[in-house]
Amino acid sequence: MSAFHEKYGHWAVLAGAAEGLGEAYSVALAGRGLNLIMVDHQKEKMGKLASRLEKEFAVQTEQVHLDLADPGAADSIMEVVRQRGCRLLIYNAAYSRVNGFLETDAEALDSYIDINCRTPLRLVHSFAGRLAGTGQSGGIMLMSSLAGLIGMQLVAPYAATKAFTWNLAEALHHEFSGHRIDIMACVAGATATPAYLATDPQYGWPKPSVLDPAFVANAALNQLGSKVRYIPGFSNRLNYFILTRLMPRKMASKVANDTMAKMYGKGTTNQ
User: Fold this and answer.
1) CATH number at residue 156
2) Rounded distance, CA 17 to CA 26, Å?
3) Distance CA 118, CA 41 (A)
4) How far apart are CA 111 and CA 5, in angstroms?
5) Tens of pLDDT along 7-55?
6) Whole-angstrom Cα distance, residue 61 to residue 152?
7) How far apart are CA 86 and CA 10, in angstroms?
8) pLDDT, tens digit, for every residue of 167-176?
9) pLDDT at res. 209
10) Are 36 and 30 in contact (CB under 8 A)?
């Protein structure tokens, strides 16, 4: 048995599994020999990916077709987790749109709260409680974003929920010190997922580093258990250091928000 299997078991549950980073995590986990509980609202894509993983890696998959905005989503996932004895949770799903705050309707605002905050909070609580109650070791990875480190125009609700995510992971890292539960927030930068590419960002010079989803997924899994907050990609870590350590907060906020305005041709560029 590998050290990874010994620590995290033979089943992983992945919320947001069908495409983009979710697909990359699915492949990375299957490549490590883990069976997968795949959770997604995209039934057809999830089914095709599951079949591919079973054939290519000889792993088992269980598909949970579910809207993560559903109030009972966490309970539905936990039923399968208990059946499979799953000890590794990755919450990758996120609701994200590039839009002005006042142009965002009430239904979309609820989606940010439900998918990005309420369901992962409930799921982490139940998942960690189960591990602590049994005394088993396990792991929890929450996908965050560099957008959550500074308030960003045009993605204000998304940025706020991603700040929630890494703060949750950091706090629970300390609370879980008496248990054998690793928790980490992967704070990703721009990643070449279908959702990100669909926003059609327009880059100036220098062009920001846009990472491959497979790189992000494998790098994050390699760091689970070693770090509480991990930023994939050297250029992203360098930008984080400059914005948070070298620049005053006001200047860093101006640079980040001016970049957003230029990328999407809207918003406000402060002079």
Assistant:
1) 3.40.50.720
2) 6
3) 17
4) 34
5) 999 999 999 999 999 999 999 999 999 999 999 999 999 999 999 999 9
6) 38
7) 7
8) 999 999 999 9
9) 83
10) yes
Please write down the long-range contacts of 198-202, taking CB distance under 8 Å and 24 or more positions apart.
199/98, 199/264, 201/263, 201/264, 202/262, 202/263, 202/264, 202/265
Question: Which residue type is seen at 107?
Answer: E
Angle at 118 between CA 214 and CA 154, to 5 degrees: 65
Q: At 186, give phi and psi (nearest 5°).
A: -90, 110
Quote the domain boundaries for residue 121: 3-242
Total number of domains constituting the chain: 1
What burial letters (b/e) apply to 192-231, b meaning 16+ CB within 10 Å?
Answer: ebeebeebebeeeeeebeebebbebbbbbbebbeeebbbb
Residue type for 125, please?
H
The amino acid at residue 94 is A
Whether 192 maps to a domain, the answer reads yes
Alpha-carbon dihedral sign for residues 260, 261, 267, 268: positive
Task: Judge contact between 216 and 191, C-beta under 8 A.
Answer: yes
